[in-house]
Specification:
Mean pLDDT: 82
Distance between the termini: 35 Å
Structural class: alpha/beta
Low-confidence stretches: 9-26
Shape: globular
Order of helices and strands: EEHEHHHEHEEHEEEHEHHEH
Largest sheet: 9 strands, mixed
Strand content: 15-25%
Helix content: 25-40%
Length: about 325
Amino acid sequence: MLAQVLDIFGRNGSDLQEQDVDPASPRLFAAPLGLALGGGAAKGWSHIGVLRALEEAGIRPDIIAGTSIGAVVGGCYLAGELDRLEEFARSLTKRRLLGLLDVSFSGKSLISGARLTKLLRRYLEDIQIEDLDRPFMAVATELSTGHEIWLRKGHLVTAMQASYALPGIFNPVNVNGRHLVDGALVNPVPVSLARAMGARVVIAVNLSSDTFGRGTIIPHAHDEDDRIQPHPDNDPITPASGPLGSIRNLIYGREADSQSISSIMFDAYTIIQDRISRSRLAGDPPDLTINPRLHEIGMFDFQRADESIQAGYDAALRAIRELSDLSDDLKA
């Protein structure tokens, strides 16, 4: 898959410069350690728990690559705003979340994202990626070509916006004339970015690892019980709830409409992300994968931050012993 490096507010570039790593920083590995934070919408709050557990164990990533919510958490962490992000995440309720999501009238998406962008800018202001204390890169997808775009310089919030702009939910983000959308469409767990940035050892956080049954093939019409029959739900004439109704369904669940456009989009997105993650990780496996147990957390359950953060923390603790063994192997 073609990947392009894009300097936000600058020119395109394919030359990845060798990254400088602070020699005085405490490190478990002699080689640069990269952290690849995967996409997964609300499940991404678990990245906060992963970072907390790594900090407590004295493990400090030298390089961070993020996709979608992984780019948001990773960028806030390197900007020194993880505490504030965690406080915000834990304070979310369904009512507050509804107030943050503004209906889009552009015809391009359900949500314009202006309120979320304003919130990010309030805390991150005009921080530039190259001003962070460690190398950082975010993944986005170019809408017109399907190219994987690596965002490594320029305005941090704009890079985050582009990386989480899920098509149909958020407006595409215009960066230097390119319309960019969610990076999870091409690289859900960006191990390849971390390696390209100079990481010799890569820890990946995969938020879709426990999506059970997504790889199963089930034959139909195999016997009488499986014969294909028409069903009233297949009637193409169904009432439309409109954009506001779809946004409410995102937040309050499916009870009112089990086949809302929002729920269909998120189910489809989950399947796509799971399949792409399996393929990309098989082709470029990390040295260690952290797999938070998140199957009960929906992709828009942002109000369940306490559970997600704890799941990430617990998963990282389980992996730290294996990480120490890996360090010993590399030193041998």
